[in-house]
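Annex B. Sample input.
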Amino acid sequence: MSSRHLDRDRAAALAAILRANLTTARPYLQVALLDDDHVADPRAATPMFASAFDWHSSVHNHWALVRLAPWLEDADRAAGEAILAASLTANHAAIEARHLRRFPGFELPYGLAWVLTLAAELREGGDARAPEIAELEAIARDRLVGWAARIPAPIRSGEHSQSALAMALAIDWARATGDREVDDALVGAARRLHGHEHDAPLHWEPSAHDFVSPALGAAWLMTRVLGGRDYAAWLDRFAPTLGRGADYAPVTPIDRVDGKLVHWDGLNLSRAWMLDGIAAALGEDPRAPALFAAAASHGLAGLRALEGASYAGNHWLPSFAVYWLTAPARSLAP
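Annex B, continued. Sample output.
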């Protein structure tokens, strides 16, 4: 199994970065301006997620701080709670919902998938703030389902537009909340988009700006769709060499100040959690040990990168680290 380990010292260090991110205003609105009156301070237009450089990073920084709470000492937990209490309010949620309704394509799919991930975390923890973001959750739910039904082919990007990553996060939300309609719709879309695929060109990866693997993203998504022998057979067709000696190796950015080139540090972390999930889905398959080992090497490389990160990485990498360190390495098939 994976060598992941989250102790209190590491949790405290990650939480400190997350708190700094969530108290640093982001510099711009990532939308096309519709008219003159739209020019606004992000703190007015999207006050809940007006931190951590960009909207989607703010969302997954919020998620990570909520997720880390059980590992934190009382003082660190209280410091994070104060930030969350000031941010996740009904008034902020209403303004955010108005913004999302005005811009139907805003943060679709990546940011909206993280909204669902945050909502599921609040719900599962019995957090009293879960109802505060229910309207945002509903908008994200409906838009992601409609988008997944509409796209004619996978979006095989290594960045925010990737379809597999967003669909996987949304399926996880659906199962956490018992939304069978969304589960069925997204599983059906995943089968349509990826069920027939074969011989993924693993040697094409990574692209210079990737923070998520297109091939592993698809394979990780399909762990939620197929189980047991069906998944093993699908993976045989999709990536015949994966786990059989032609596995991914961790990558090192040439520039950790460049906001795009630093993506490779995040790629190591997302590869780690995806490889863990793929290995878990394979069960006793002989490929699993090599994939767990590859996950560990990628995850540890991603954690080491945090030691020398600039804000270009720090504003989002800690939440990816939290995801790898806390996500269960188990089969997610229904």
